[in-house]
Each structure stands twice: as C-alpha cells, then as structure tokens.
Amino acid sequence: MSDIDLNLQIWRQKKSDSPGAFETYALDKISTEMSFLEMLDVLNEKLTKQGLDPVAFDHDCREGICGMCGTVVNGVAHGPEKEVTLCQLHMRNFKDGDTLVIEPFRSRAFPIRKDLLIDRSAFDRIIQSGGYVSVNTGGTPDGNAIPIPAQTAELAMDAAACIGCGACVASCPNGAAMLFTSAKVSQLCLLPQGQTERKQRALDMVATMDKEGFGNCTNERECEAVCPKSISIRNIARLNREYLMAALSEG
Amino acid sequence: MELNAHIPAGPLSEKWDNHKFNSKLVNPANRRKFKIIIVGTGLAGASASATLAEQGYQVQTFCIQDSPRRAHSIAAQGGINAAKCYQTDGDSVHRLFYDTIKGGDFRSREANVYRLAQVSNSIIDQCVAQGVPFAREYGGTMANRSFGGAQVSRTFYARGQTGQQLLLGAYSALSRQIHAGRVTMYNRREMMEIVLVDGKARGIITRNIITGEIEKYSADMVLLATGGYGNAYFLSTNAMASNVTAAWRAHKKGAGFANPSFVQIHPTCIPVHGDYQSKLTLMSESLRNDGRVWVPKDVNDKRHPRDIPDAARDYYLENKYPSFGNLVPRDVASRNAKEQCDLGKGVGSTKLAVYLDFADAIKRDGQETILKKYGNLFQMYEKITDSSPLQEPMMIYPAVHYTMGGLWVDYNLMTTIPGLFALGECNFSDHGANRLGASALMQGLADGYFVISTSVANYLGTNSLKAVSTDDVAFKEARQEVENRISKLLKNSSDGPTGKVTVDEIHKEVGKLLWDNCGMARNKQGLEAALAKLPALKDKFWNSVYIPGDMKEINQSLERAGRVADFLEFAEIMVRDALAREESCGCHLREESQTEENEAKRDDANFSHVSVWEHKGEGVEPVMHKEQLVFENVTPSQRSYK
Ligand SMILES: Cc1cc2nc3c(=O)[nH]c(=O)nc-3n(C[C@H](O)[C@H](O)[C@H](O)COP(=O)(O)OP(=O)(O)OC[C@H]3O[C@@H](n4cnc5c(N)ncnc54)[C@H](O)[C@@H]3O)c2cc1C
Ligand code: FES
Fold first, then answer.
1. Do residue A215 and residue A165 come from a single domain?
2. In terms of residue numbers, what domain contains A188?
3. Residue A245 CB coordination number (10 Å)
4. Closest CA–CA distance from residue A96 to any residue of chain B (Å)
5. Which terminus of chain A is more solvent-facing, meaning fewer CB atoms within 10 Å of its CB: N or C?
6. B74 and A128: CB-CB below 8 Å?
C-alpha cells in the first residue's frame, strides 16, 4: 500500500445545453487501495470544503454490476484495467505524478446531463421494443419442463451478463449500440423460450437502435475491448445473422 | 394504532387458497379505470408493475436510478430458494416454511411465511419462462446449491449473478408493459412524501433528480417497494442510493414501523481497509459451501496462513457446530467471527478478519471445478484486495447487509395507512429476526408476482374511492412541506463552507454510532448512550450542514442530505427498538440475554411479538405497539445448529 499524487483533468459541464470544458485539479496522498470512485469522493469532499461545485457522476452498486458508473479515463472507457467497471478500478493501476483525463461517455444517443453524468435511456427503449419473452405472470410450465443443455445455458448467460453501462457505445468510432443489442438478442435466440418471437425481436430492436441515433457497426472491435463483462463480438455476428434471416423471410 | 394482521381462517396450508377465494375481484374491463403508483423497480417493484399492468391496471412506476434495471436487487449474487425438491433430498413446502421460521428465530408470522414457501415454486417457473438463464445440469435439468440454515439443496442460481438475472427478467416484463403503454415509467425520481386524502394513500410527491422540480402524482393506491435501510450505518453492502426516506415519510404520515432494530450483519464481506471507504463488498454465502472458516489457535501466531499447520488452526464453526459446520445461519456465523476477533485471534493488518479457506476444496475437486462455481467471486475479491483465493485464504469480516425490519404490513401487505402497501425488503413480513440466504429474492418476487394482485383487487373492490387530482389541497400542502424541508436543508449554505460539516461527515458519524452500539452485539448501556447522543448529532446536521449548489438542478449533495436527515431521525427508533427488546433473537444479540454457551437466548414469555412503532409528532416520544405472534403449527424451540 502506498500513497500517490495525481493531476486530474475533468470535464465540467453545468447542463445539457451549456458549453463544457476541462478543469484541472491536484489531488495529493491518494491511497492505492482506494477505488477510482472513492478517489472522486475524496476530490468532491475537498471541492465542497472549498465552496466549489463537486463533480457529478453516476454510481450506485459500486461492485461492478448495476452498470450505473462509467467515464472515459485517459481515452479508455472504464480506465486502463481490463474487464472492470470504473467502480472496480483501483488506484493501484496508477503511478505517483500521473495525469488522469476524465470525461463522460460520449455519444449522440447519450446526452450529457451534468459533468460526467449522462442519459442512457435510449438503451431502455431498445429493450422495450423487443428485449423480452412475451409471457404474463402465472400459468407457466414447470422449470424442468423446458430442459436446456448446460452448454446452451452457459452461452446464454455469457450474453445475459451485459450490465448496460454504455462503454461499448462510447468506445465505438461510429457510436454503435450493436454489442448491447446483440447481447440481449443472443441470450433470447439461444434459449428455447425466445424462439417464438425470434424474428420480430431482431427486426424491432435493430429498428429502435437506428431510430435512437446509434451508428452502424464497421467491425472496429473497440466495444469488445472495453466491455467490463467481456461480452463477445460473436454476439454481433449472431445478431447480423438473426436480422438477415428475419428480413429475408419477411420480404 | 390498530394492528390487525388479517390472517385468514383455516388450516395453515389452506389459508392462502381460502384468502384468494374470499377476496374481492375487479372485472378485467374495469381495471383500466384504476391508477396504481409503484415506487421502486427492484425485484418487488418491477415484478408488481409488470403483473398489475398485464392485468389491465394503469400503472405509474418510479425509481431513483437512470433506469429501472439498476435497482439494488441487481447486486444479489448467490441465489433464490424454492421448495421444488428437484434433488429428492427431503425438501417440501413445509420444510422451507419451517426452515424460514426457525432461521428467523420464531419472530415472524406463520401464515405469511407459509404462503411464501407455497408460491416459491411458481417464481422459478415464471423466471424460466422469461428466459432467465439459470444454471443447468448436463442433462438439461435445473441445478441447485445449498445455502446457510438449510440441510437441503434448494437454491437456484445464475452463476454469481442471480439477482442481476432475476431483475433483468422482471425488467424485461416491465419494459414490455412500458412499450404497451400500460406502465408510465418515471426514472430519476425520488419520492419525498406520501399524500393522504381522507386518511387513504392517494399519491406521492417526488423530486426530479435532473431538473430539481418537485412533482405531484395521484392514484387510487400506492405501493412502496423501496428496499432496505442498511445504509443508515454508512458502510454496508447496499447500493449507495439505498435509503429509508420513502418508508420514513410513510411512517411519519401514520404507517407503523416494525422491528426497526432487526438488521442482518452478513458474515462474509471484504474487511474494511481505510477511512475513505464508501461501501463494503459482499462475498456470497455460497462460498461457505466449499470454504472453511478458521483463525490461528494462538493469538501470537504471525505466520503466513499457508505455513500454519492444521493442528494450529481453529476451524471454530466446524468444531462448535458439527451438524451445520460452515453453513450455520448468518447471525451465528457473524457473531462467532466477532467473538474470535474480540479474543484477539483476528487476522490481517486490522485484526478484524478471519480466514475463509478453499485449499481443501481445491485439493478435493480440482481448481477447475472450484473456479466454475466461484470464478467471478474470486475475481472480484482479487480485484479489490490484490490477493488470489487460489493462492491464499480469503480474509472476511461481517458487514451490515439486510434489514428484516420495515413497514408493518398485514397479510395483504397493507400498512397501517389504508391504500398504502409495502413489498419486498421495505416491509417486515417474512424473515423475523434473521433472514436465510437466498430468501430475499424469493420474497421480493413472491410479493410482486404472486401476492399483491390479490390485495390490489380486494382493496379496490371493497373501497369506494372518490376522484382526486393533484390540484387538491392535500397535494399542494404536501408539496409545500417538501419544498420547506429542502429550503431548511439549504439554509446554512449561503455563506460558504467555513465552519460547516459535510453530509458525508455526519453520515459517517451516525453510521459509526449505530455500528458500535446497535450492531452485532448490543447492551443497555451502549444503547442508552447512543440514544443520548442522537439529538446533538441531529442538531449539528441541521445547524451546520453545508450543501453546495441549489435545488433546481442536479445536486447529488442535496440528494444525500435528504437521505441522511431521515437516517438521523430513523436511528432513534432503531435504538429504541433494540433497547426495548431485552431478549436476544436472531440477529439481535442483547449481551444481557445469552445462554451458557453464548448463544442468543430468546425470551418467548415476554417478547414473542412484533414491535411496531408509531410516530407521535416532532419532538414527541414514539410509542411502541405489539403484534403478538401466535404459533399453532411449529413449537418455538431454542435454535440449535450443533
Ligand atoms: C450484495 C448483496 C447480495 C445479495 N444477495 C442475495 C442473494 O443471493 N439472495 C437473496 O435472496 N437476497 C440477496 N440479497 C438481498 C436482496 O438483494 C434484496 O433484499 C432485494 O433485492 C431487495 O429487493 P427490493 O425489490 O425490495 O428492493 P431494491 O432492489 O433495493 O429496490 C429498491 C427500489 O426502490 C427505489 N427507491 C428507493 N427509495 C426510493 C425513493 N425514495 N423514491 C423513489 N424510488 C426509490 C430504488 O430506485 C429501487 O428501484 C443481497 C443483497 C446485497 C446487498
Ligand atoms: S457503480 Fe454499479 S457498476 Fe459501477
């Protein structure tokens, strides 16, 4: 355990429609045992005591599962460590004297609300357009009446692990939401429960994705590289197949 | 305050069916005429929103986070119980009922717990149908694991992300109803007040977290599914936004608060390491299936754990509780960890930790098998502590985790305010003085998917409600109250921070006061001292808290301040409740009431009741009422896990 001194450059923006800019803050004696968000807490306590406006940022579970946190740190969504969210990133990944440039996830479809806090409700609307199996409560068959090979369940779970943080969108040069959308489409098309609505789901979710202003996928693979849950781009291939099959059989 | 639990007549196993038959219904065509407000989108709120909207009601749902999918339920790791008995190991509805009553140390209602066990199986079926990817055996059937306090394997799971997968299932059902226009979803709203008209719950006041606007919403009934209040302690395993505000506002408007001192301290969390720490991370209880808990026998043994031979280790849980071993219930495991640390046997730099060791399991089953079960938990542990559980034992210590206490509800889940219902962790209903692992997810989904719709129909079918609108005076007054309160919170801040305290400083102070005096072990002296200190702390907060920014914008300091203000008031009834209960039961250990073997000693003659607190006005002492517990089907016994 040791302490490090940091130079922070943080994106400050008062409202969605106000101009933003980087501000510089010096932060000394940060324990390397701290999480990244705890480091921001320390900064915010310091700013508060100086009568300055603390930095707004989203967070909730602080254990890498709610998908609420996330900023770009030195050009990388969720920072330099692989397969972690920002709240799980620890300061032992940085060295004394480092400069950290911290900015929000940027995308046309994710308006900035304040500082590092953004609006990701477009993701909700993608799910609303088809990311489910249409069953009502009650009257469902016994769980074991739908046998699912362990391997299939594992594959579906790999895709279902998406936390909806938006790092994939922020890292894609086109601002595409393909990794997010394909994860849900894959989970449901792999499982027997998802078969009935398989085609319509792919068509509707892709249509919503486009409508919300997300870009197209050109296989840059940046999304997979930053995904804290290691969602594979094989899901994107699967979505493309699903979409093509659905579109062809429609026409 | 009248406490009628409205437990249906008849034998235990027929009560729920009788009740459903005797409850009033609302004709499908009429349902769209009724508006229901649901606050919270965790397992309880999301499942209730989806179910009621599917049935045809007009639903308005609210949550603090930017999306309903991010409710705190998402963080549950280990699993969900059900009495499926897929393993043919002797499980049954009755056994799940019995284990839950016994695990709760005979401080919960028989009828509620039995219903929970009855509907548990439908929950699993529902979630499977939604596409929740539960773990499967190679043959395709569903897999189970064991959890503490049970000798059967009844826990269903999706890796170490069961809460996430169940919540995403409920969220998908909710999303479908939002798409269909039957649920209006309000994200980033914090409920600040409940509105009563003619004594009935008819709406809520919220603060829009983005614009700071104070908004009014009306309905025919209000359902709270706002989760637990563990964050009163500042450090807990709960998400940062978890709060008591919604429940506390309801309490101050007349809802009884039951057993506020019943707080579960989870035995396996990553120990505290610095004063900047913002939350504690849970390591799932499922780890105790294969991990062995131990401390060095000798207080002065400074060797690396690997160099300490078996003979010099004390596997204290296995030694003391041979039949349950490492799988004793949480309260017992936590208390024993504290006892070892109090004896000076704690390990690590703070001496406030014990080992949880996987070496034997890895030797027995191989690294691959162990990683398959716990890989993501091991990874999470390593990310935080920089140490690999494959190489050396984990270090763990108990942390605040779950609150059994909550709004008092009757069998219908209605609070003492007509038309106000409480679901999930924010009610007190099923777990008595201690909750068994994997039973909170079960309860949240039971309440939302399978219980509440009967209550909703019955309430709407038996009450003729007059039309109300948000222009009514009750709404204007409630909004004014909220605005005044916010102005009062901001009153110290116009002349800068000098000489002031921050919100977090006060939150940490009240948290520590509670942890030290109303935590794992409690006594009269400590509780009285804490009660004496609370008023001054409250004054310090209101007279010197500094909150930057103003109310008409995103202001995260203001959000936290409102929650801390409520925790400060709430702490008082927590401590009073712990003080009044002069017995030990479940998680509530009064040092004055222990058996010769230092186990919690209940006093059924005097304390076989739910304690329900009534708010009597600002500055007036609250009053405690009792709901006597009646046991007709089980005989309360001294719990033994030996
Ligand atoms: C780390 C961890 C692991 C766990 N693991 C397990 C497990 O393996 N098995 C198990 O059975 N249980 C587990 N639990 C317990 C379980 O997760 C919770 O008890 C359960 O999820 C609570 O669900 P809920 O729906 O009642 O509330 P929550 O999921 O807490 O949801 C509360 C909702 O209310 C909203 N809300 C709160 N206050 C307000 C307000 N004032 N205004 C507007 N909205 C508000 C929030 O936005 C949120 O949507 C675990 C808990 C933790 C902390
Ligand atoms: S705060 Fe929940 S994922 Fe980071």
1. yes
2. 121-133+148-250
3. 14
4. 19
5. C
6. no
In one-letter notation, the amino acid at residue B55 is Q
Among candidates B357, B371, B367, B370, which has minimal Cα distance to B318?
B357
Mean pLDDT (whole number) for B236-260: 98
Q: Is residue B626 part of a domain?
A: no
Task: Give the C-alpha separation, B357 to B350, whole Å.
Answer: 19
SS3 string, B419-479, reads CEEECHHHECCCCCCCCCCCCHHHHHHHHHHHHHHHHHHHHHHHCCCCCCCCCCHHHHHHH
Max CA distance (Å), chain B? 74
Q: State the catalytic residue, choosing from B330, B335, B479, B560.
A: B330
pTM: 0.97
Burial class (CB in 10 A: 0-12, 13-18, 19+), B353: buried
B594 DSSP assignment: B
Q: Are residues A166 and A204 in the same domain?
A: yes
Give the count of beta carbons closer than 10 Å to the beta carbon of residue A101.
16
Query: What's the confidence (pLDDT) of residue A250?
Result: 66
Sign of CA dihedral A140, A143, A149, A152: positive
3-state secondary structure (DSSP) of residue B533: helix
pLDDT digits (tens, 9 = 90+) for B448-463: 999 999 999 999 999 9
CB B546 within 8 A of CB B497: yes
Angle at B533 between CA B527 and CA B538, to 5 degrees: 125
Residue of B38, B64, B132, B207 to test ligand 1 pocket, by largest number of atoms within 8 Å of CB: B64
Nearest to A92, CA basis, from B274, B310, B201: B274
Look at strands B221-224 and B420-422 and give their pairing: parallel
Mean per-residue pLDDT, B577-594: 96
Same structural domain for residues A81 and A128? no
Name residue A11's beta-bridge partners.
Answer: A22
Catalytic site residue B109? no
Report the distance separating Cα B419 and Cα B202, nearest Å. Answer: 7
**In this predicted model, what pLDDT tens digit does every residue of B145-177 receive, in sequence order?**
888 778 899 999 998 899 999 999 999 999 999
Judge contact between B577 and B226, C-beta under 8 A: no
Q: Which of B85, B164, B501 to mutate against chain A (most A CBs within 10 Å)?
A: B164
**Do B221 and B325 fall into the same domain?**
no
Do the Cβ atoms of B99 and B266 come closer than 8 Å? no
pLDDT digits (tens, 9 = 90+) for B11-61: 999 999 999 999 999 999 999 999 999 999 999 999 999 999 999 999 999
Please tell me whether residues B208 and B88 are part of one structural domain: yes
- In tens, the pLDDT along A65-106 reads 999 999 999 999 999 999 999 999 999 999 999 999 999 999
Range of the domain at B38: 29-264+402-462
